[in-house]
Amino acid sequence: MKKTLHVVAMLLLFSTLSFSCVSQIIITIDTLDFQVQTPNTIQALTTKIQNVGTTAIPIIHLELSGSSDFAFSTSFIWPTVIQPGQSHNVNVYFGSHNVGEHIGQIDVYHTDSSTPVEVIYLHGITEDPNCAPYGTACDDGDGQTINDIENGLCECIGTPCPECINGILPPLTSTIVKLKLEGFYVHNNNKMRTNLNYFGLLPLQQPFNRVPYNYAGDESVTAFSISVVDWVLLTAHDSQGNILKQQACLLRNDGKITSTDGSEHIYWYLNEPYYISVQHQSHLGVISADLSFEMGKIIDFTDANSSHAQGQLKVVNGTPLLFAGDFDSNGIINNLDYNIWIQDNALFNQYVSWDADGNGIVNNLDFNFWDANKSKVGSDFINVGSSN
Ligand SMILES: [Ca+2]
Ligand SMILES: [Ca+2]
Ligand SMILES: [Ca+2]
Protein backbone atom coordinates (compact mmCIF):
# COMPACT_ATOMS: atom_id res chain seq x y z
CA MET A 1 0.00 0.00 0.00
CA LYS A 2 1.36 3.36 -0.94
CA LYS A 3 1.05 6.11 1.58
CA THR A 4 1.32 9.79 1.02
CA LEU A 5 3.81 11.39 3.36
CA HIS A 6 2.85 14.74 4.72
CA VAL A 7 5.11 17.06 6.58
CA VAL A 8 3.09 19.10 8.97
CA ALA A 9 5.03 21.99 10.37
CA MET A 10 3.65 22.85 13.76
CA LEU A 11 5.83 25.72 14.71
CA LEU A 12 4.19 26.21 18.04
CA LEU A 13 6.68 28.34 19.87
CA PHE A 14 8.09 30.48 17.13
CA SER A 15 7.39 33.67 19.00
CA THR A 16 9.52 32.72 21.99
CA LEU A 17 12.61 34.83 22.44
CA SER A 18 15.67 34.24 24.55
CA PHE A 19 17.74 37.12 25.88
CA SER A 20 21.05 37.16 27.66
CA CYS A 21 22.61 40.38 28.85
CA VAL A 22 25.93 38.71 29.56
CA SER A 23 26.51 37.09 26.23
CA GLN A 24 24.60 39.70 24.25
CA ILE A 25 23.29 36.89 22.08
CA ILE A 26 19.74 36.45 20.94
CA ILE A 27 18.61 33.10 19.70
CA THR A 28 15.57 33.97 17.65
CA ILE A 29 13.78 30.74 18.50
CA ASP A 30 14.83 28.89 21.63
CA THR A 31 12.53 25.89 21.15
CA LEU A 32 12.13 24.24 17.78
CA ASP A 33 9.03 22.07 17.51
CA PHE A 34 8.82 19.58 14.71
CA GLN A 35 5.93 17.43 13.59
CA VAL A 36 6.56 14.53 11.23
CA GLN A 37 3.46 12.67 10.29
CA THR A 38 5.06 9.33 9.55
CA PRO A 39 8.47 7.76 10.06
CA ASN A 40 11.34 8.25 7.60
CA THR A 41 10.63 11.81 6.61
CA ILE A 42 12.90 14.77 7.10
CA GLN A 43 11.91 18.21 8.26
CA ALA A 44 14.15 21.25 8.41
CA LEU A 45 13.81 24.39 10.52
CA THR A 46 16.11 27.34 10.93
CA THR A 47 17.00 29.34 13.98
CA LYS A 48 19.19 32.40 14.14
CA ILE A 49 21.94 33.41 16.55
CA GLN A 50 22.39 37.14 16.69
CA ASN A 51 24.77 39.45 18.54
CA VAL A 52 22.61 42.31 19.81
CA GLY A 53 25.37 43.85 21.91
CA THR A 54 27.89 46.53 21.10
CA THR A 55 31.02 44.39 21.32
CA ALA A 56 32.13 41.28 19.46
CA ILE A 57 31.16 37.94 21.01
CA PRO A 58 34.21 35.73 21.60
CA ILE A 59 34.73 32.63 19.55
CA ILE A 60 31.91 30.17 20.20
CA HIS A 61 30.97 26.66 19.16
CA LEU A 62 27.81 24.55 19.13
CA GLU A 63 27.23 21.00 20.36
CA LEU A 64 24.23 18.79 19.62
CA SER A 65 23.16 16.36 22.32
CA GLY A 66 20.20 14.17 23.21
CA SER A 67 18.21 12.46 20.50
CA SER A 68 20.01 11.05 17.47
CA ASP A 69 16.92 11.94 15.44
CA PHE A 70 18.17 15.51 15.06
CA ALA A 71 21.07 16.91 13.07
CA PHE A 72 22.20 20.49 12.56
CA SER A 73 24.38 22.60 10.34
CA THR A 74 25.33 26.25 10.41
CA SER A 75 25.60 28.90 7.76
CA PHE A 76 29.27 29.51 8.42
CA ILE A 77 32.32 27.68 9.75
CA TRP A 78 32.79 27.46 13.48
CA PRO A 79 34.62 28.64 15.46
CA THR A 80 34.29 32.30 14.77
CA VAL A 81 33.50 35.67 16.27
CA ILE A 82 30.04 37.17 15.97
CA GLN A 83 30.35 40.89 15.40
CA PRO A 84 27.80 43.38 16.83
CA GLY A 85 24.69 43.33 14.72
CA GLN A 86 25.70 40.13 12.94
CA SER A 87 23.56 37.04 12.87
CA HIS A 88 24.09 33.48 11.67
CA ASN A 89 21.61 30.79 10.75
CA VAL A 90 21.58 27.39 12.36
CA ASN A 91 19.69 24.79 10.34
CA VAL A 92 18.21 21.91 12.27
CA TYR A 93 16.96 18.70 10.65
CA PHE A 94 14.65 16.15 12.18
CA GLY A 95 13.76 12.73 10.92
CA SER A 96 13.27 9.35 12.53
CA HIS A 97 12.71 5.74 11.67
CA ASN A 98 10.89 5.28 14.96
CA VAL A 99 7.45 6.34 16.14
CA GLY A 100 7.67 8.38 19.32
CA GLU A 101 8.64 11.66 20.96
CA HIS A 102 12.19 12.92 20.41
CA ILE A 103 14.04 15.53 22.42
CA GLY A 104 17.42 17.12 21.91
CA GLN A 105 19.29 20.37 22.37
CA ILE A 106 22.04 22.46 20.88
CA ASP A 107 24.33 24.10 23.40
CA VAL A 108 25.99 27.35 22.39
CA TYR A 109 29.39 27.93 24.03
CA HIS A 110 31.96 30.62 24.32
CA THR A 111 35.13 28.68 23.63
CA ASP A 112 36.64 29.84 26.88
CA SER A 113 33.66 28.57 28.90
CA SER A 114 32.66 25.03 29.84
CA THR A 115 29.00 25.91 30.40
CA PRO A 116 26.67 26.83 27.55
CA VAL A 117 25.67 30.49 27.35
CA GLU A 118 22.49 29.66 25.40
CA VAL A 119 20.53 26.54 24.55
CA ILE A 120 18.30 25.73 21.58
CA TYR A 121 15.80 23.07 22.61
CA LEU A 122 14.57 20.57 20.04
CA HIS A 123 11.34 18.65 20.15
CA GLY A 124 9.89 16.33 17.56
CA ILE A 125 7.16 13.76 17.28
CA THR A 126 7.10 10.96 14.77
CA GLU A 127 3.42 10.17 14.61
CA ASP A 128 2.05 6.68 14.88
CA PRO A 129 -0.05 6.05 11.73
CA ASN A 130 -2.41 3.97 13.85
CA CYS A 131 -3.28 6.92 16.11
CA ALA A 132 -5.39 10.01 15.61
CA PRO A 133 -3.34 12.79 13.97
CA TYR A 134 -1.54 15.34 16.12
CA GLY A 135 -3.85 18.19 17.07
CA THR A 136 -7.10 16.24 16.95
CA ALA A 137 -9.38 17.56 19.70
CA CYS A 138 -9.93 15.12 22.57
CA ASP A 139 -10.78 15.00 26.28
CA ASP A 140 -8.07 13.95 28.71
CA GLY A 141 -10.62 13.61 31.51
CA ASP A 142 -8.86 16.26 33.60
CA GLY A 143 -10.96 19.33 34.47
CA GLN A 144 -7.81 21.31 35.28
CA THR A 145 -6.41 21.18 31.75
CA ILE A 146 -7.69 22.91 28.62
CA ASN A 147 -7.13 22.73 24.84
CA ASP A 148 -6.82 18.95 25.04
CA ILE A 149 -5.36 17.48 21.83
CA GLU A 150 -4.02 14.16 20.57
CA ASN A 151 -0.22 14.07 20.37
CA GLY A 152 -0.05 11.69 17.42
CA LEU A 153 0.98 8.84 19.72
CA CYS A 154 -2.51 7.86 20.95
CA GLU A 155 -2.22 10.17 23.98
CA CYS A 156 -4.59 12.99 24.80
CA ILE A 157 -2.62 15.89 26.29
CA GLY A 158 -4.10 19.03 27.87
CA THR A 159 -2.52 22.36 28.76
CA PRO A 160 -2.41 22.81 32.55
CA CYS A 161 -5.01 25.25 33.89
CA PRO A 162 -4.97 25.07 37.71
CA GLU A 163 -7.74 27.67 38.00
CA CYS A 164 -10.08 25.82 35.63
CA ILE A 165 -13.27 24.15 36.80
CA ASN A 166 -14.49 21.31 34.57
CA GLY A 167 -12.13 22.43 31.82
CA ILE A 168 -13.41 26.01 31.73
CA LEU A 169 -11.60 29.04 33.11
CA PRO A 170 -14.11 30.94 35.30
CA PRO A 171 -14.36 34.76 35.30
CA LEU A 172 -11.71 36.71 37.21
CA THR A 173 -12.67 38.89 40.17
CA SER A 174 -10.63 40.52 42.90
CA THR A 175 -10.89 41.78 46.46
CA ILE A 176 -8.94 44.30 48.49
CA VAL A 177 -9.00 43.44 52.19
CA LYS A 178 -8.01 45.49 55.21
CA LEU A 179 -7.98 44.50 58.89
CA LYS A 180 -6.19 45.02 62.19
CA LEU A 181 -5.20 42.39 64.73
CA GLU A 182 -6.00 43.26 68.33
CA GLY A 183 -2.84 41.71 69.72
CA PHE A 184 -0.47 43.28 67.20
CA TYR A 185 -2.12 46.71 67.05
CA VAL A 186 -0.23 49.71 68.49
CA HIS A 187 -2.74 52.50 69.16
CA ASN A 188 -0.06 55.22 69.32
CA ASN A 189 0.83 54.98 65.64
CA ASN A 190 -2.30 53.26 64.32
CA LYS A 191 -0.17 50.40 62.92
CA MET A 192 0.61 46.81 63.78
CA ARG A 193 3.99 45.75 65.09
CA THR A 194 6.39 43.96 62.76
CA ASN A 195 8.61 42.34 65.40
CA LEU A 196 8.17 38.82 63.99
CA ASN A 197 9.45 40.06 60.64
CA TYR A 198 12.20 42.26 62.10
CA PHE A 199 13.63 39.39 64.15
CA GLY A 200 13.46 36.96 61.23
CA LEU A 201 10.86 34.71 62.88
CA LEU A 202 8.31 34.61 60.04
CA PRO A 203 8.39 31.39 58.00
CA LEU A 204 9.19 31.82 54.30
CA GLN A 205 6.60 29.15 53.43
CA GLN A 206 2.91 29.74 54.20
CA PRO A 207 2.22 28.38 57.71
CA PHE A 208 -1.34 27.08 57.28
CA ASN A 209 -0.36 23.58 56.19
CA ARG A 210 -1.45 22.18 59.56
CA VAL A 211 -4.54 21.43 61.66
CA PRO A 212 -7.06 23.03 61.71
CA TYR A 213 -6.44 24.85 58.40
CA ASN A 214 -5.04 21.93 56.40
CA TYR A 215 -4.27 24.32 53.58
CA ALA A 216 -1.71 22.81 51.21
CA GLY A 217 -0.90 25.87 49.05
CA ASP A 218 2.68 26.48 47.95
CA GLU A 219 2.81 30.25 48.62
CA SER A 220 6.26 31.35 49.71
CA VAL A 221 8.59 34.33 49.63
CA THR A 222 12.36 34.64 49.54
CA ALA A 223 12.26 37.70 51.82
CA PHE A 224 9.68 39.97 53.47
CA SER A 225 9.37 43.69 52.89
CA ILE A 226 9.82 45.58 56.16
CA SER A 227 6.14 46.46 56.49
CA VAL A 228 4.95 42.83 56.63
CA VAL A 229 3.36 41.82 59.95
CA ASP A 230 2.49 38.14 59.46
CA TRP A 231 0.81 35.56 57.23
CA VAL A 232 -3.00 35.42 56.96
CA LEU A 233 -5.22 32.91 55.18
CA LEU A 234 -7.91 34.25 52.83
CA THR A 235 -10.82 32.00 51.89
CA ALA A 236 -13.58 32.52 49.33
CA HIS A 237 -16.83 30.86 50.50
CA ASP A 238 -20.03 30.12 48.62
CA SER A 239 -23.42 31.19 49.98
CA GLN A 240 -23.51 28.12 52.23
CA GLY A 241 -20.04 28.79 53.64
CA ASN A 242 -18.32 26.03 51.68
CA ILE A 243 -14.74 26.72 50.69
CA LEU A 244 -14.35 27.69 47.02
CA LYS A 245 -10.74 28.88 46.98
CA GLN A 246 -8.01 29.74 49.46
CA GLN A 247 -4.85 31.79 49.34
CA ALA A 248 -2.15 32.49 51.91
CA CYS A 249 -1.38 36.22 51.94
CA LEU A 250 0.69 38.76 53.83
CA LEU A 251 -0.65 41.34 56.27
CA ARG A 252 1.03 44.75 56.19
CA ASN A 253 1.39 46.99 59.24
CA ASP A 254 -1.10 49.49 57.74
CA GLY A 255 -3.74 46.75 57.67
CA LYS A 256 -3.70 46.00 53.94
CA ILE A 257 -3.47 42.40 52.84
CA THR A 258 -1.32 41.56 49.84
CA SER A 259 -0.51 38.46 47.85
CA THR A 260 3.04 37.17 48.17
CA ASP A 261 4.02 39.24 45.11
CA GLY A 262 2.85 42.45 46.82
CA SER A 263 -0.44 42.94 44.94
CA GLU A 264 -3.25 44.51 47.00
CA HIS A 265 -5.77 42.92 44.66
CA ILE A 266 -6.33 39.29 45.61
CA TYR A 267 -7.55 37.59 42.43
CA TRP A 268 -10.04 34.75 42.26
CA TYR A 269 -11.29 32.74 39.30
CA LEU A 270 -14.82 31.88 40.43
CA ASN A 271 -18.20 31.05 38.93
CA GLU A 272 -20.36 32.53 41.67
CA PRO A 273 -20.57 35.36 44.21
CA TYR A 274 -18.55 34.70 47.33
CA TYR A 275 -17.83 35.76 50.90
CA ILE A 276 -14.22 36.42 51.93
CA SER A 277 -12.94 35.33 55.31
CA VAL A 278 -9.56 36.05 56.85
CA GLN A 279 -7.83 33.94 59.47
CA HIS A 280 -4.74 34.63 61.56
CA GLN A 281 -3.14 31.99 63.73
CA SER A 282 -3.67 33.70 67.09
CA HIS A 283 -6.91 35.62 66.38
CA LEU A 284 -10.54 34.82 65.64
CA GLY A 285 -11.24 34.97 61.93
CA VAL A 286 -13.67 37.40 60.27
CA ILE A 287 -15.91 37.08 57.24
CA SER A 288 -17.35 39.71 54.89
CA ALA A 289 -20.98 40.72 55.36
CA ASP A 290 -22.12 40.29 51.76
CA LEU A 291 -21.64 38.00 48.82
CA SER A 292 -19.66 39.77 46.11
CA PHE A 293 -18.65 39.22 42.52
CA GLU A 294 -17.08 42.55 41.83
CA MET A 295 -13.61 43.37 40.46
CA GLY A 296 -11.73 45.33 43.11
CA LYS A 297 -14.33 44.87 45.85
CA ILE A 298 -13.03 46.56 49.02
CA ILE A 299 -13.65 44.69 52.25
CA ASP A 300 -12.57 46.95 55.09
CA PHE A 301 -12.68 45.29 58.49
CA THR A 302 -11.15 48.45 60.01
CA ASP A 303 -14.25 50.54 59.29
CA ALA A 304 -16.22 50.96 62.52
CA ASN A 305 -19.39 51.70 60.55
CA SER A 306 -19.12 48.59 58.45
CA SER A 307 -21.68 45.88 58.96
CA HIS A 308 -18.74 43.49 59.13
CA ALA A 309 -18.20 44.72 62.66
CA GLN A 310 -21.41 43.11 63.93
CA GLY A 311 -20.12 40.90 66.72
CA GLN A 312 -17.08 39.73 64.76
CA LEU A 313 -14.82 42.60 65.67
CA LYS A 314 -13.76 44.17 68.96
CA VAL A 315 -13.94 47.95 68.88
CA VAL A 316 -11.21 49.45 71.06
CA ASN A 317 -11.07 53.27 71.25
CA GLY A 318 -13.09 53.40 68.05
CA THR A 319 -10.88 50.96 66.14
CA PRO A 320 -12.37 47.59 65.09
CA LEU A 321 -9.92 44.75 65.69
CA LEU A 322 -9.87 40.98 65.33
CA PHE A 323 -10.19 39.28 68.72
CA ALA A 324 -6.87 37.91 70.04
CA GLY A 325 -6.59 34.65 71.96
CA ASP A 326 -7.66 31.82 69.64
CA PHE A 327 -4.36 30.01 70.14
CA ASP A 328 -5.45 26.73 68.54
CA SER A 329 -6.99 28.64 65.63
CA ASN A 330 -10.29 26.75 65.76
CA GLY A 331 -12.70 29.71 65.82
CA ILE A 332 -13.52 29.65 69.55
CA ILE A 333 -11.65 31.27 72.42
CA ASN A 334 -11.91 28.92 75.40
CA ASN A 335 -9.95 26.80 77.88
CA LEU A 336 -8.29 24.75 75.14
CA ASP A 337 -6.46 27.92 74.12
CA TYR A 338 -5.44 28.59 77.70
CA ASN A 339 -4.08 25.05 77.96
CA ILE A 340 -1.77 25.70 75.01
CA TRP A 341 -0.49 28.90 76.58
CA ILE A 342 0.05 27.44 80.07
CA GLN A 343 2.05 24.49 78.72
CA ASP A 344 4.66 26.75 77.16
CA ASN A 345 4.38 30.26 78.54
CA ALA A 346 7.96 31.47 78.66
CA LEU A 347 9.35 31.46 75.14
CA PHE A 348 11.76 33.85 73.45
CA ASN A 349 12.35 34.36 69.72
CA GLN A 350 9.64 31.91 68.64
CA TYR A 351 6.91 31.94 65.98
CA VAL A 352 3.95 30.33 67.77
CA SER A 353 0.18 30.79 67.67
CA TRP A 354 -0.04 31.65 71.39
CA ASP A 355 2.11 34.77 71.00
CA ALA A 356 -1.00 36.97 70.89
CA ASP A 357 0.80 40.31 70.55
CA GLY A 358 3.28 39.07 67.95
CA ASN A 359 6.50 40.23 69.62
CA GLY A 360 8.25 36.84 69.47
CA ILE A 361 7.97 36.41 73.24
CA VAL A 362 5.37 34.34 75.12
CA ASN A 363 4.45 35.66 78.55
CA ASN A 364 1.61 37.07 80.67
CA LEU A 365 0.84 39.81 78.17
CA ASP A 366 -0.35 37.13 75.73
CA PHE A 367 -2.44 35.50 78.45
CA ASN A 368 -4.12 38.85 79.14
CA PHE A 369 -5.54 38.99 75.61
CA TRP A 370 -6.95 35.48 75.98
CA ASP A 371 -8.38 36.31 79.41
CA ALA A 372 -10.23 39.38 78.11
CA ASN A 373 -11.76 37.50 75.16
CA LYS A 374 -12.44 34.02 76.54
CA SER A 375 -15.82 32.52 75.56
CA LYS A 376 -15.87 34.54 72.33
CA VAL A 377 -17.04 32.45 69.35
CA GLY A 378 -16.23 33.23 65.70
CA SER A 379 -18.35 32.82 62.56
CA ASP A 380 -19.56 29.28 61.79
CA PHE A 381 -18.84 29.85 58.12
CA ILE A 382 -15.13 30.24 58.66
CA ASN A 383 -14.84 26.80 60.18
CA VAL A 384 -16.74 24.95 57.47
CA GLY A 385 -14.36 22.44 55.93
CA SER A 386 -11.76 22.63 58.68
CA SER A 387 -11.08 19.62 60.85
CA ASN A 388 -11.44 21.09 64.32
CA1 LIG B 1 -8.92 18.70 30.07
CA1 LIG C 1 -9.58 28.11 70.15
CA1 LIG D 1 3.97 37.99 73.09
Report on this structure.
The chain is mainly beta. It folds into 3 domains: 18-130, Immunoglobulins (Immunoglobulin-like), CATH 2.60.40; 132-168, no CATH class; 172-383, Immunoglobulin-like (Sandwich). The protein contains 3 helices and 26 strands. It has helices spanning 195-198, 335-343, 364-373; strands at 18-19, 25-27, 31-36, 43-51, 57-66, 70-74, 80-82, 87-94, 100-110, 118-126, 145-150, 156-160, 172-178, 185-186, 191-192, 228-237, 243-252, 257-258, 266-269, 275-280, 283-287, 297-300, 313-316, 319-322, 347-348, 361-362. It has a 5-stranded antiparallel β-sheet with strand order 1-2-4-8-6, with no helix packed on it. A 5-stranded mixed β-sheet has the order 3-10-9-5-7, with no helix packed on it. A hairpin with a 5-residue loop joins strand 16 and strand 17 (243-252). The longest helix has 10 residues, at 364-373. The model is unreliable at 1-23 and 384-388 (pLDDT under 50). The structure holds calcium ion (3 copies). One calcium ion binds at residues 326, 328, 330, 332-334, 336-337.
Relevant terms:
elongated, mainly beta, 6% helix, 26 strands, disordered N terminus, Immunoglobulin-like, five-stranded antiparallel sheet, five-stranded mixed sheet, single chain, 3 helices, binds calcium ion, 388 residues, disordered C terminus
